[in-house]
Please model this.
Amino acid sequence: MTTTIRALLGATALLTLMGAANAETTITVATVNNGDMIRMQGLMDDFYAKNPDIKVEWVTLEENVLRQKVTTDIATKGGQFDVLTIGTYEVPIWGKAGWLVSLNDLPADYDAADLLPAIAGGLTVDGNLYASPFYGESSMVMYRKDLMEAAGLTMPDAPTWADIKTAAAAMTDKSKEQYGICLRGKAGWGENMAFLTAMSNSFGAKWFDENWNPQFDQKPWKDTLDFYLDLMNNYGPPGASNNGFNENLALFQQGHCGMWIDATVAASFVTGKDSTVADKVGFALAPDNGLGKRGNWLWAWSLAIPAGSQKVDAAKAFINWATNKDYAALVASKEGWANVPPGTRASLYANPEYAKVPFAKMTLDSINAADPTHPTVDPVPYTGVQFVAIPEFQGFATAVGQQFSAALAGSTSADDALAAAQELVKTEMTKAGYIK
Amino acid sequence: MARKTTQTRKAVVTIAAWLIGIVIFFPILWTILMSFKSEGDAIKAPLAMLSSPWTLESYGEVQARSNYALHFWNSVVLSLGSTLLALLIAIPAAWAMAFVPGKRTKDLLMWMLSTKMMPAVGVLVPMYLMFRDLGLLDSRIGLVGVLTLINLPIVIWMLYTYFKEIPGEILEASRMDGASLRSEILYVLTPMAVPGIASTMLLNIILAWNEAFWTLQLTTSKAAPLTQFIASYSSPEGLFYAKLSAASTMAIAPILILGWFSQKQLVRGLTFGAVK
Model:
């Protein structure tokens, strides 16, 4: 009997030890639904081969749903996620609040020095890298080479807003539903305000002066909005106040836009299989006004670890795999260089194979032309190119976006929209304690 | 003459009803049509989209990328579980309010309904903290509780309305025959109110199936129902209409089929007591 009990105890101990040896750590990764992230989910076999003791559970959500959910979870230390996909807007705010784990101690093969400085700068707070960029983007001009040629024009690599207006006028033929320019008009801090804020930087405008006073009552903002409305009303598609990225993408792919200024990531779509104009697209830097700042933005989807995670080591192993140089080589070997997540590492752009991708150089030049730490012509107290990295921005920027979208729809004037924007931002900033 | 007027009126009303029905159903129809197109065709102008080739590729991709069976099962557990629990609480509550009303019964009913008027996001953080502390995040049990609570006012109200239509004398007679309170509710009241209970149940299942705030906020993977399955196919950058439509069609199909087969009971229940 004793022998039997001993044998049973021994077997139990052995099984427990074996269980411990094989203990699997499961991490939950919250991510957005974009092509690069979905592609990564299909390449997980490589991660599992290198990390057999880590299992990854994916939670893929629409951007706004994800943002709300992840914000709730991280603010309450809910611990539902071990890796978060967050944008350049959240990282400085959350990093400063102590909600993220520093990634300064990733293994040497991660090679942090290889990250593009503009991208890394937006993800670093007080010397700590709080998120590892998975894919980066700026904005640029995508234009129809055939229509430009027919109009007898050439698009410079670095056009001015005056060049854009001339080209838009020349390419517009409303009888053929052909519009010179397509731009975002849909209200939202990440929709029309992303474009207009970046555009305003090139007109010398800014959201706030150094004492956090809103600047919509100043001439540069009036110049920005007047120019935008003039362009869109004369050369833009009808109903543009409802158009965001996807609506403009559909218009451009179907040949209705002469130019489209939007995210560099669109380049792969407008030259892809669903585009009717794939072989006729040229690229140029976002326009400027000769003031030293271009109207392009900077954004990166990055992977970060919430401070509430209990599985930091496994989460770091995953982030290292997903954002390492080796990952780019893995994607290239399976799906080709054009499908490698762009805009994060210098080594990718030094690769002669990647240089053959038609939009690679312009994407890199656009990213390098953005400076999130000094986004405007005059000094400002904030960082962020197409946003202001303060928590209150999402709320009031969407309200300002609604005013500007209404001006584009014709239901209010540019002056009234600017006055309303000035008033509402001033109220919010006073309430939040920025203006004493 | 009067007969002709009646006929004309009937025709007008019928046409108007059909038109309203088509307008209401159109978005669902369009979603279903779009789900059978490729991403490139789905963004074309309506006529060009309809004339483009039909394909099942979006369904294939959605099947390959997501665990539909798990989301479906979670939706079934959440909607049925919350409905049964709500009925278990609501039947005795509605009985008390309908047959033994107190001075404040009407106020109580109004107060219960008023909880539905508060925006859910207002209590998101406290709810989230409670769920975190009780270990209920991403659990079916926790969500069944939440869905029960948010639909309870409607369930009690509906049952109260049905019970009010039942003559109290019948219950009194059963009591005089020696029926206990339990027997009175179970064997006398419930059988008489079956159409009302059935329609309340169906409506509650539909409400719970479609609930898309708490189910998105309080789940991640294990307890995530079909609402999260849909939300994973929307994207601000890139083409997604066909895949999103396929996911939506797969998510609403079960409840559409249930609604179709039970429409008689639904209408009967919803109009119960409407005409005396």
Observations:
- Residues 116 and 150 of chain B are 7 Å apart (CA to CA).
